[in-house]
Every structure is written in structure tokens, then in C-alpha cells.
Design brief:
about 35% helix; 24 strands; alpha/beta; seven-stranded parallel beta sheet
Amino acid sequence: MHSLQYIFVELVLVPAFPFFLLSGIMKDELVPKRMVGIAVNEKPVIVQRDGSILLEVGGPYYEEARDALARFAELVKSPEYVHTYRLSPLSLWNAAATGMSAREIEESLSAYSRYPVPDNILRDIRDYLSRYGKLKLIRQDETLLLVSDDPLLITEIANSKGLSRYIEGWGGPNRLKVAPAQRGYLKQALIKLGWPVEDLAGYTPGAPLAIDLRSTTLSGKSFALRSYQEEAVAAFWASGSERGGSGVVVLPCGAGKTMVGLGAMARARCHTLIIVTSTTAVHQWRDEILDKTTLGPDEVGEYTGDLKDVRPVTIATYQVLTWRPSKTENFPHFAVFNARDWGLIIYDEVHLLPAPVFRVTADLQARRRLGLTATLVREDGREEDVFTLVGPKRYDVPWKVLEKQGWIATATCTEIRLSLPQEKRLEYALARDPHVKYRLAAENPAKLAVVRELVARHRDDQVLVIGQYLDQLAELAAELKAPLITGRTPTQKREALFAAFREGREKVLVVSRVANFSIDLPEANVAIQVSGTFGSRQEEAQRLGRILRPKAGANQAYFYTLVTRDTKDQEYAAKRQLFLTEQGYRYTILDAAELTDRLGSSEA
């Protein structure tokens, strides 16, 4: 059924044509007016019949092409001069869910193409776009129906043995009755066959809850959603119709995804379950809710390992929900999903949604669902399940657009390469396990002196030193005389150290992966990454995001990543940088010996 598995888009990308993934925005500018009449040899893109698309580096349209392609293509690799994108069925269906048509995609490609886009590529785009919405879930009275205008397609589904468990029989011409409890599972099964379902069956409203956004926070500051946050809420809510109410909002770290969640709560005005990554994130969400909405403390509950208090708005952690006594037993805390008549479920950092929560989410398709994330990249490849069970991408905005508007800090990214000391090279050469080789390279002892130099250079800044391996981090903390925060650090101590950092009493924190997600440290403006989770693109984005909150003055942030050359460390670093490269960030590559010459003396 999949005549096109992937189209590969090879790109050098191109300066300042923001494409917002909100349906209806910039519809008249799908082909930029200034591209009309441009000489053919100035157009940077070459689309080839095998599906590869080449875009020349150094042309005047890098950012424009990057932002255009980000609407419907996925970055695969990004070496210095040519970037490779993948145009996949899922990327096309996400585009379709935002209201983008095949014609708009074709025009975006043609606008930058030096030669005519091959007909076979155009046909594949049209075919995949036409599949979205060909199957719809609707509700008629109390009956859930799968409907299609294609009688042969609906007949094929009715006679499929693999789908029979979800179907209860015919409900009329071109209509199949669907067991309500199977709504999510049917959508999962159909997308695997190449047929994304447009779910228009609507939602239960949930128990009502009076909630509004404040115009002045409890702390006395003026408050209103930013324009792009309002747009994101509107794209998700879709005027309260069945065409909205489920989906994902993608915004950079530091751009205020929590505020989008609060805006959605104020639109829904119902009991809400919020699921987050850590107890620290629970407390941050609770503080924001109490500060910026009309809800009182008795209406906001916490469901963590320390406290299980279910209230009209309850904030729980993924960790506690997926705990169970043994691998063979049930998840006892899944009961929170049925503890109240929730009308809205918010999944913070939805790209980290654990597999067991996917399972329970499949049973919650009658509830409105909002996913918040900085990147839809999942290292386990389950993007299709996010699309199907939480919902399609409803809103996205390029990171560089918000940077230019001053909503996030301007970030300078630098990769510093070091050699492995002679005594470690033999150990690395003899290691056979790739994970062992990576750890040897990532824990390169030569990184210690470079971290010390960078911290000295940024002595007046707020610095995070971030890594993967606890022994390495403990050594760094001792050398820098800085606090160390890991998963083993008690929550109370962890939050006290974060507070000291925010207030400037601590200038440097050494942190493990616990600082990857949902940690509000707006004062941090320097991050030094010494090791990471192999080639994790989403982790790279999250770590950069820790320093992107807008700053006073120059609004400048610095992101350093230390890499051992000619090892697995360098190989994984290239993979880690893919997502950020797509967003327009460029990494300056330096040798450790060049630090003083290129960045200036730390004594300056």
C-alpha cells in the first residue's frame, strides 16, 4: 500500500521566511513574491526523480527554504554544505492536519527549484495528502462510526481479519460501527496500514471548572499570552469544535509552552489532568497555575511519589504513573486517569511519553488531549503513536523566528574538539562494545581543563555544566567547587539549589539528565555539555533550551559541547545536532587549542 516510503530531501538551506503551522496564516505567501522572476540559476534547489532534493549552500534563500520544508519534511542529516530531509507519510499527514494542501507543498517546492519538480514526486505528494481524511471517525447519536466516501476502502476494512476486533458491524452505507473502547486502537492499526484517520467523533466535556487567566499575576506583574501563544491555543482549540481538541503544540524551550497549557485550560474550563516529567516540574506547573489563573490552592492537586492528592486540576508525573510492583503486575496509579471526570489531559514533554501511557491514552480518546514539546523527535520512533493517540501537530513556529522577535535568547553554539589522551587510546581501540567506546570517549579526562577554562571565561554568567555519566560529573563538581544535582539528589535539596542559582547565590551548577526537562532556570545563559545520551536529538534541543529564556540586555546565550575527535563521541555529536541545525542553529567547530585565540582570553 505504501508506494512511497520516504522522499529524501537534500538541502542547503536558506534568510527569513517564517512559516507558521497554523491553518490560515500566510496563505497568500506560499510562494514568496520575491521568488517570482528570480533567475533560474539563482534558485538553490534541485529536485530529482529518485526523490532527492539538493539545495546549494550559500545562496540567499537558506532560511526561507528551511522554514518552508520544516512544514512537511523531516531532517535526516546536516553536514556542512548539504542537508538531507525526509518527506515521509507522517510528515505529510501532519502538514495536512494543519490545513496544508498538496498544492501548497508543490508550490513551496517549486518556488525554490531550479528545474521543474519531477512528476512522480508531485504524484506521491498528492497521493499521501489525499489519504488524510479519507477515513473519518464520527459520532451519530450514541454510535461511533468509521466512514468513508470510498466504498471499496471501507469494504476492505470491514473484511480485514486484523481489524475485525475493533469493528461491530455495518452502520449503513460506507459506515462501520466501532466499539467506543477501541477508538484509539483502531486509529493505531489503520495508520500502520497507511490510512490516517481524521477523528471527528468529538469529546466529553468533563466536569466543569471556573478558570480564567489573570491580567495581573499574584506577584503583581502584568500578564497576557504572547501572540504566538494565543495562536497556538486557538489552533488547538479550533473554536471548541471536533476538528480541534486533540494535538500537539511545538514551541522552543523557553518560549512558554506552560502558558499555552494554561490558555487551553481557560478555554476548556473543565477538570484537567496534567502529566509532567518530574516532581520539580509538578511544583513549577502548580506555581504558574496559582500565579496566573483564578484557581485557588484547594483546586490544584499533586500526584507524585511524595503526595497523592487528586483535585479538579491534578499534576502527576510520568514516573509515578508508570510505577508497578513488578513487570507482571498492573500499574496501580493508572487509577488517577479515572479518578475524576477529566475534560482535558495535558502531556508535557510529549516526546517522552512512556509506552505504558500510550496504552492508557488509547482508552482516553473521548477526552481532549494536548501535547506540549520542543520537538516531535522520539528516539524510539513512535511518532506515529503521538500523531494517532494524542493528535496531529496543530501549531509550530521556527525557533529562529522567536529569536528574532526577542522571545527567546540568541544562542551561539560551539563544538570544541579534543584528542583522547595517549593512555586512553589503546583502551578505546580494544573496546568492542559501542556503548563502552562511547563512554570512554565521552569521559575524556582532557575535557576537565576545557570546562575549567570556559567557566573562568564566563565567571560573571550563570553556568550549567551538563552530562550523562555521574563519575565524570562528580569529578567536575569537585574541581569547580560547584553543587552537583543528579537523580539521587532529594527533591527538597534540588529545589533549594535551583533557587540559589536563580537568585545568583550559586553561579555554577553541575547537573545530570535531571536538568534536561521542564526546569525553569531563566537566569542560565551558558551551558557546557560534556556528555550526552548517545545521538539523542531531542536531548540536544532540551539542553540548549535550558538557556533560551529571554535575557535582559544583549539577550545572548552560549552553548558549548565538548567532543572527543575521531571517536563515537564525535559521531554521536553529529547526530545530536540534527534537530537544532534544522531550526537554523550553526555550530562553530573549534579545536581545544583554539579557545583563547578564537573566543578571547579568560583574563580579559
